[in-house]
Amino acid sequence: MRAGKAWFERPRVPLAVLGTVLVWVSSIAGSGFSPLSIPFALWSTLPYGVLWIAGSRLQDRWPVLGAGMAAIAADVGIRAAVFVWPRGSTAAIALVFSPAYITAIVMPVAAVAGWLLGMLWRWHLAGRAIVLTLGPIALGLLALGLARPELFPTTVLARRDVLQRIGPPRVVVGGDAFESVPVTTNSAWYLAADLDGQSGDELAIVDHTGADLLDSATLAVKGHVPFTGEPGRLWGSFSTLVRLPDGRLAVAQTGGGFSRTRLQDLNGAELWEYHPDPKLPPTALYPADLDADGSVEFYGASTDLIARLDSSGREVWRRPATLASILNTMPGMGDLPPWIVAIEYGRKLLVWDAEGRALMERAIRADDSPLSVVDSFAGRSFIHGGHSARAFDLEGKPLFDVPMGDFTVSFALGVRVSTSEAPSLAIVGSTDRDTSRYRLLIVNADRRAVYDEVFDRYPRVITPRRADGSHAIFINDGRGLRLLRKR
After folding, report:
1. Could you give the domains of the chain?
2. H/E element holding 224?
3. Which of the chain's termini has less CB crowding within 10 Å, N or C?
4. pLDDT tens figures, 306-331
């Protein structure tokens, strides 16, 4: 009894010790006992050092109780999110900022809440019942909100409302006008490219042993391309097939993260690598034939430039661009020249033609960058996201707006269903990852939905160009590949 009373009278000591033990044990054990975890463990004791010092100067124990117990609850939630239920590869970054967050935000708010609970405690027996009820609930919700935000009660209720509005996966509009033709259920990578030098693109179904090439119009198998090198070493998520000027096929590694940007033959031998800055990795290498000479060229992005390379990897031109990412490459269309579109560090939109001539440069907001560049019924447009697909022309003039309801636009592309129709706009939207609802909406030149489907997995849309200039529409929803075509 005496020990319990002492704990209650001087809570800063046991709470600071408990918090320190928590962060040290979780930091060191969670890192696999790496010595590099020691500086993080020291930094993580900041809230408890402040609690120890500030608590010694406060006469009222209730703010100390509130701040200390909330700090521990927050640390439990954050560390559970990092070590037990990580929601991404960058989850551990939270440990870098959590000590400052807990010290500057959680503890002051909790100290005020503790002071208010102390007044209730001293007020009446009913007040003590309220404190004993609200205190644990608040601490539990704090830990839950940081550890498993998707299970927070308000989030669960909001997600239930969204699911009721959206409904189950189904074809909402266009089931009578379109049909789905299964192509394959094999686990594979799918891509579209001109791989035979003839008019129209081929559909490639790729695994680690090679690629089957299909006619995108008839689905007839046109051939098989074997990968003859060490199995599993040539192909990955950032790989694509290209046709070289001599007719050979090769694999371009287009970059992503710290992966290399290079061209390899089908045996895995390196033909060339693009790495202009030896200290930092390039960010992208996109193959295209924008000058329509029948020979593929490459467009590369690095830390301070955008460049065009020929098929042998030699730079044809380079243009300065700081931390720019290539958004898209667009072929010429009518009077429009080809475009290379890049976004410079989320603050500037840049457009060049295939010869490196600047066509446009304008400022954009970092939180409202274009998601796609499309050729649709409104001409060549930049598509911005949100809960609607907002289209703008080269100068930033608004063109049209397609509402997406509960879905947030993640991607858009222009698609010509038939040569007798103006190009349509296909929009892919998504809810949050826990709601797991996705939408493919195709609207025609009248802004009317001609196809609308709801999925429970993200649909990736592939649109190879046919010989007549129209597009085939293939959908990969994680269960295989199917062709969406008009009845």
Report:
1. 2-151 (no CATH), 158-187+369-487 (no CATH), 227-365 (2.130.10.10)
2. strand 221-226
3. N
4. 999 999 999 999 999 988 889 999 99
